[in-house]
Amino acid sequence: MRIRAVVVALLISSAILALGWWVRQSRKTPAPAGRDVTGVEARQSAGTSLTPAQPAVPESNSSLKPSAAQPSEPKEHSFRGTVEKVDANARTLTINGENVPGWMAAMTMTYRVDKDESLRVKAGDRIIAKVYDGDFSTLHEVRTAAGPTPGATAGPTAGPTPGPTAGAKPANANELPPLSWVCTTPGEEGVLEDKPGKCPQSGVPLVPVRIVTAYSCLKFQSFIQDKPGVCPVDRSELVPITVSLYFTCGNDSNVRELDPGTCADGSNRIKGYERRSHGDHNPRHGGQFFMADDNWHHLEGTFVRPNVFRVYFYDDFTRPLAIAGFAGTVTTTDSDGRDIGAPITIRPGRTKDRNTLEMRLPGTTLPASFALRVKFKADDKERVFDFTFPDYSKEPAAAPPAAVAAQPAGTPNALVVRTPAGGGTPAPSPQTNGNVTGGSVPIYPFTAAGNSIAPEEALPTTTAELLAELAKRAQSVKTLLEQGNLSAVWYPAIGAKDVALTLEQNHMNDVPEARRAEMASAVKRLTLAAWQIDAAGDLGNRERLLPLYRDFSAAIADIQTIYGTR
């Protein structure tokens, strides 16, 4: 029995050794062409490496080009557009980009490049580059394209452009741009497709639009026209933006059609323009403009005398975004983006729009490079943005006041500026001040800092007190409108928006869970209406203010109903 047991043990051992040799040999043999190796790839991505270890790659603030060999890395997209500006010192290109389905809608934006030779392009060049999911600020492998790109998405940037800021037009001036399909639901405004379908999150059917390039005042967004020119408010050069084109009737603004036609009174429909999410990435303060990877937050970094690093925050329509809950640090970096200083906490600025973080950095010399690390919420991830300033940032200068020809009556979506009897310069609004860029100043006192405002009292902290403050500011808007004091309406409107954002940020637990999405929608509508009231009030446009006030009041009422105070 003992001899038999020994023999059996030897046989089993031999079988195990033979099996081990066979497994080792099979691992050395490459899989035949067409063989499914998904299982091996799955194990590799799960952390079990079947290949020799690779040297570790140090982390960097700059985006690295993803490798196509790694299936877990971001998806690659082909990017096309027209160069509008080359900044060799900042190593950036400003590109009027075409729609990239699944990555970004058509828009003009400033990008970093992965290689210095990419900066050899010039304004007016059409380019092709690679971009990757999750990185909306870097172009990889930029190269010039010879002429129009076959099969490119038609729209505001399709075809060659005659200059760095001119928008592309169809060959026939009467030819309409093709249809695109967009989402109109809150939070999905950036979705743009080239065929019908449904919004990815809400499931709501996509809406057809015609997307074109138009031109607007940089700081007075309600003025839009279809060609370059001069802003009739502050005489600054108009900037290109991406808009939706529609057709309406002069005597019935509720008409919104995708095609020309005839109105009920027999007159021809006229063109109208509507701003698009991500359609305006023009820096407001002469800085560098970037978009966060959440497709919502946008920021503009500036470096102004006396060595103040200031960051402006905006939403996806480039409207100032209050910095409720924001926190950030700034670190001096070298030319390669490596930190060479300790992080310094940046503080809220005291500008009219309450949308800035800033810090004075004494001893900084030009050119200067910084890394901004910012969180939009306390529990949010930290996002990093790199800025290089060869010189101090300069506010876009408005031209000296001059006579402005009146727009023809009925011109759609263009600001009507009436010339006083006898000619001359249009009468200034009550807020006009020639010493302030843009010609508009707040009605409350400035501090000695010149570009900051005297701080107001802090908002209350309880839900009941905030709701009372919201009602008080809403009543102030109503009273000022009734009095005709249009230049002062912006202050309580923006204040009401701040109160609503504070409620959403700090007191959402007081809202039933089933109604929290409704609350978020009401706050977003209130924010939009407040900024539109601000712009229309600056222009003294009562006709434009009244429908905006209805939207504003409806959002206020919804918030009060949700909290049970109405």
List the helices and strands and how they pair.
Blueprint: H1 2-28, H2 38-45, E1 76-87, E2 92-97, E3 107-113, E4 126-132, E5 135-144, E6 179-182, E7 192-193, E8 207-216, E9 224-225, E10 239-249, E11 252-257, E12 270-275, E13 288-291, E14 298-304, E15 308-314, E16 327-332, E17 344-348, E18 356-360, E19 368-375, E20 383-389, H3 463-483, H4 490-506, H5 516-538, H6 542-562
Helix pairs in contact: 3-4, 3-6, 4-5, 5-6
* CATH architecture identity of the domain at 288-389: Sandwich
User: What is the element string, with H for helices and E for strands?
Assistant: HHEEEEEEEEEEEEEEEEEEEEHHHH
Task: Enter the CATH topology name of the domain at 288-389.
Answer: Immunoglobulin-like
Kindly estimate the percentage of residues that lie in beta strands according to DSSP.
15-25%
Number of helices: 6
Distance between the termini: 94 Å
Low-confidence segments: 21-71, 147-173, 401-456
Structural class of the helix and strand makeup? alpha+beta
| Count of β-strands | 20
Overall shape: globular
Global Rg = 29 Å
CATH class identity of the domain at 288-389: Mainly Beta
The residue fraction in helices comes out at 10-25%
For the biggest β-sheet, the strand order reads 13-14-15-18-17-16-19-20
Output mean pLDDT: 73
The biggest beta sheet is recorded as: 8 strands, antiparallel
